[in-house]
Design a protein that fits this description.
- With 431 residues, the protein is of the alpha+beta class.
- It folds into three domains: 154 residues, SH3 type barrels; 99 residues, MgtE N-terminal fold (Alpha Horseshoe); 114 residues, Roll (CBS-domain).
- 30% of the residues lie in helices and 24% in strands.
- Helix 3 packs across helix 5.
- It starts with a strand and ends with a strand.
């Protein structure tokens, strides 16, 4: 059976009882001078975002939509040895040669030999610049034997990342961010350069501050400003607060004034207050808008569930800071009303807004008291200036390094490590 490794990215991993324990993020191989690479196993991501190693010898079945393992899986965090390579993260997009012609690696195929070991046997490539040898059209995809390909061991200045990103195309930004964290600095920079501004902005929002700054510092100033503009204003403000003031001001100066204005406003609030946590782009409509218009707004794909949970009603202008704040209409109420009803008639007048200077513990108590996922923030002039969502609060309640921590994942059958090195903790896979 021949399996192309890039297609395995994101595939669910199950134990024989049918319980999903994670998803495949990469394939670990060892490069050998004169023989095809040997497949050691799979990198599996288990919750909460911990990468562990599943030996290929414990994989019982590989299907298009599932990988089933037997025995047990070690839950210690995966660390790649110097002699190992990540097939998806490091080998895709390499420029290699077939018969003296430069080609780009699209994918790798692994097969199980007669002795039971898995080997990388085929390389899917895309023709690059014209050259000697293959005598085929440029842009053609070829499947070559591993033995016919040279150049995998060379260090390349600019590897590109199109095919790696194709393998992670369907993943959430948080999962792609976690994948980036486990790549070498050079590869991480190549992936960041290949992402469009919106996708990179989404990924940066899910990274620890140190990694955000590292990626941003490798971008030229114009690109960095464009990416900041694509981020949610509250996340952009948080990132700028961690930069030297001169660098932050220079980046703000390169942003369009209308995009920089909400970020500058957020930077005036203390970090652990409602103003410092809030988003300045909640869903706001005037009272004469209809329920149908409100539902259309919260159906937009680019807003989060917490932001979409309510529509804030204010007098024009409806961009923050708005005109006089009138109240909030919860999406459940919107679903119960006729579409032609005016939004002003669906306002919940029992919920008072909070002020920008309300500290974190006050915001937390407010959301808990009223069972809300977001709270309107109104200034002393009665204008809506933003909304604090539950994910903003969690970001500030969790330890600063929570995105970098390897917490012990939940699940039955986990035992602590008995000795240093490669011994378990493990989850029993049965069989």
């Amino acid at each position: 059976m021949r399996i192309f490794v890039a297609r395995l990215a994101g595939t669910p991993v199950f134990d024989p009882a049918g319980d999903q324990i994670g998803r495949i993020r990469d394939i670990v191989v060892s490069m050998r001078p004169n023989d095809p690479p040997r497949v050691h196993g799979l990198v599996v991501e288990v919750q909460p975002r911990r990468r562990v190693f599943l030996p290929i010898t414990r994989v019982r079945n590989i299907e298009a939509d599932a990988v089933i393992f037997t025995g047990s899986i070690n839950l210690r965090r995966f660390e790649k040895h110097a002699s190992e390579s990540l097939a998806i993260g490091e080998l895709l997009d390499l420029t290699v040669e077939i018969a003296d012609e430069k080609v780009t690696v699209l994918d790798l195929a692994m097969e199980q030999g007669r002795t039971g070991e898995w080997l990388i046997t085929k390389v899917a490539v895309l023709r690059g610049a014209p050259g000697r040898g293959l005598r085929r059209r440029r842009g053609e995809t070829l499947i070559a034997d591993w033995s016919d390909v040279t150049g995998f061991g060379s260090v390349q200045k600019d590897q590109g990342a199109a095919n790696l990103l194709a393998a992670f195309e369907e993943t959430r930004p948080a999962d792609l961010a976690n994948a980036l964290r486990h790549l070498p600095d050079k590869r991480r920079a190549e992936v960041a350069a290949a992402l469009d501004d919106d996708r990179l902005a989404d990924v940066l929002e899910e990274l620890p501050e140190r990694d955000q700054i590292g990626i941003l510092s490798r971008l030229d100033a114009e690109r960095a400003a464009d990416v900041l503009a694509a981020m949610d204003p509250d996340d952009a403000a948080d990132l700028l607060q961690d930069l030297p003031s001169a660098q932050a001001e220079a980046l703000l100066g390169r942003m369009e004034p209308r995009e920089a204005a909400p970020v500058r406003r957020l930077l005036t609030y203390a970090e652990n207050t409602a103003g410092g946590m809030m988003t300045s782009e909640p869903v706001v409509l005037p009272p004469h808008a209809t329920i149908a218009e409100a539902l259309a707004e919260i159906r937009r794909q680019n807003i989060t569930p917490a932001v979409a949970a309510q529509v804030y009603v204010a007098r024009p202008p409806i961009q923050t800071p708005t005109g006089k704040y009138l109240g909030v209409a919860h999406f459940q109420r919107l679903l119960r009303e006729p579409p032609s009803t005016l939004l002003g008639g669906a306002i919940d007048s029992s919920i008072d807004p909070i002020r920008p200077d309300l500290p974190l513990h006050g915001v937390t108590s407010y959301l808990a008291t009223y069972n809300l996922v977001a709270a309107p923030v109104v200034d002393e002039m009665g204008r809506l200036v933003g909304a604090v969502t539950v994910d903003d609060v969690l970001d500030h309640l969790l330890p600063p390094d929570w995105r970098e921590r390897d917490e012990q994942p939940p699940g039955a059958g986990i035992s602590p490590p008995s000795t240093p090195g490669s011994g378990p903790p493990e989850v029993n896979g049965g069989g």
